[in-house]
Amino acid sequence: MSAPMLSVENLGASYGxxxxxxxxxxxxxxxxVVALMGRNGAGKTTTMKAIMGLMAQSTGKIRFDGHDISxxxxxxxxxxxxxxxxxxxxxxxxxTVLENLDIGRQPxxxxxxxxxxxxxxxxxxxxxxxxxxxxxxxxxGRMSGGEQQMLTVARTLMGNPLLILxxxxxxxxxxxxxxxxxNTILELKKAxxxxxxxxxxxxxxxxxxxxxxxxxxxxxxxxxxxxxLAENIDIQRAYLTV
Amino acid sequence: MSFNAFLFQALNGxxxxxxxxxxxxxxxxIFGVTRIVNIAHGSLYMIGTYIAYSVATKVGGAxxxxxxxxxxxxxxxxxxxxxxxxxxxxxxxxxxxxxxLATFALVLVINDATLWIWGPEDLLGPRxxxxxxxxxxxxxxxxxxxxxxxxxxxFVLWMLHxxxxxxxxGRLMRAATQDREMVGALGVNQAMLFTGVFALGALLAxxxxxxxxxxxxxxxxxxxxxxxxxxxxxxxxxxxxxxxxYLAAVIxxxxxxxxxxxxxxNFGGFTVNFSKLTLxxxxxxxxxxxxxxxxxxxxxxxxxxxxVAEPEEPLRPATPATKIAGLILLVVLVCLPLIAKSSPYTLxxxxxxxxxxLFATSLHFIMGPGGMHxxxxxxxxxxxxYGAALLVKWFAAPMxxxxxxxxxxxxxxxxxxxxxxxxxxxVYLAMLTLAFAQIVWAxxxxxxxxxxxxxxxxxxxxxxxxxxxxxxxFLTLALAALGxxxxxxxxxxxxxxxxxxGRDSPLRAEAIGLDVKRVHWLAFAIAGAVxxxxxxxxxxxxxxxxxxxxxxxxxxxxxxMVLLGGIQTLxxxxxxxxxxxxxxxxMMRSTEYWRALLGGIILLLVLAFPSGIVGxxxxxxxxxxxxxxxxx
Lengths: 242, 632
Prior knowledge:
The complex is a heterodimer of chains A (242) and B (632). Chain A is built from ten helices and ten strands.
């Protein structure tokens, strides 16, 4: 197998005096969908923030598409083609749908081997998420949770990412939206985009993921293929079910 | 006053509103995106007046005047960008208050640089070519330039709206105002954005300044006057709202114009000179708005800012080493009169330093553990000082009584102002406390019959046995030490825990049964009372008290002292006050440009120790400890 798209080695991260992540290593191959599974507070969001350069205190080595991104600024990381959709969506509520998309806009890019990455435009995205297409001028603050979830994904796609850190896309949205999110992930995978997906729900992860890492107390407790995890009731019981 | 005269004053107010709006809009935009309250914004305005004056007089004619205005705006924008790149960019991760300190240092530096380049005289610019006439409005003559200004304000407002809505830069600014971290995660280089916003804000300030030269002379006092007005406008209008800034600028300018228009009015025996109430009126409007609409007329409640700074460390009780050091310090201070026999000035300075320590420690009490960033601590200093001085002046009270009354009056003031202040937080609280301090200042300044107005109260000398320097020094030392220890006691009592709990998480503190507002209100009152003692001592130490000693600059001195020492440590304010008082004294005696020197030193300290002198020291030690542990 060629070098992974994203490789994380011995990642540690803290908030003030409280250490959240310990010696965490994982990787995501090109075109792969990898699930980062764990309960609330296990460290999924912190992992993603640390990869994105959003944690003030973090240690370890992170490589992305051939670049060392440890300690780099978030905007530099984003400009290399790493997209981030936060769990709390962080829509700009004063800005309209189209304006939100515009903030995420970046030029088209290529993988390091010269293959062009999928290019997204407003038209494509509004077609991919028809709900958004119906409200291009609505301010982000007056949208439902599900609509905001679509918008945050679409906004990240405007940056034509090579890999997306997708933090709990199925959390707190209606079943219809969950289904839409699953289809979107499969669509992205087909287009060649890699995804690191954080998730609590095994059924959702099973629909879309190739492999999985199980996280608890800031450490990787298990990793394997998604199919193995789906069958491994013990691991699920120990680390996932509430 | 006739109705026509009333309307005429209203027109006057509208033309004054434009200049105010430019500065306030710039300040508001910069705050929105970078979360920096740029105290130096008035200084940028001031530079604008001077540069425009120079271009207008050197080049001359219509090109010099109108071209000069454009050139000035661009030059000031460049200066703003340079400030952002060279200074502020390095301290975005520092605590918010540190950034304030840095911009305040800039005020000092820019003021002295202006003095150096243009000299101390007021400079009156030429009249605007093409707009020198006046037209008759409502039976009076209104200069055409004023009419021009009336229209420039709304025009710029409209342009700004277009820029914010229709350009990518404008959209980025709006997005970053809400969540700048997310904007960064989407690939936007914040540094470029911040530089751009700073340049735009500076451009507006420079424009505002340049447009003023045809109306008012360029003077060195402009910076603090303008920033005071701009704060009021931004807070009344709502932080980050451009339309709010215009609305508020109009309201404030109108209220002032009306006060001047009303002049002396007789209320059944009482005569009130309204033209002398402009300052009080301005700040009363602000206080009223903040109480009724805490986030300004068109502002919205700020989303909790995602802080990039580290969380506050818990306070630790003094270690034996600290206690011993404190004791040694006290012994040295007690022995100071012996050491100082040869140079009597040492005691004068010693008294100044001790008063500064008491002042700064009381401010730190509410700023650090209370989390209430008061910008108006001079109010309680002033109440104490004037309380003591007026008792001596009007009732020939003995010093003991006057000194005892000082904290009482300050306490009453702090209870009154604090009741309103604790209902707000963050920048809004800072601005409200500033408004209260300005009201105290303006009342003292304008109530001549009671306070002697700008002359102040003279002849407040200590009575025996404290009428010589040595004994008065001991009295000051005793009161300062008592005050500091008392405040420390409070912090490690359950009351202090409640205070810190309320600061760190108001919601959780309320949920466990603490009345956070009440606790903070009491803290505010305690700090005010202790500060009043400092004020009383100050009046007796100097033998006089005047409005200028209790103005904005004293509040800012206090902030600088606390921040220099480091807000998260208890010894911080003591060290900060001492260093600052000694530095200021030393520099005032050694150079005419002491402000620039002081500002320069503050800037260096801010860049070198982003957590204060003591904070930096503590970090250094703990880092050494961890490395030595790791090595062993």
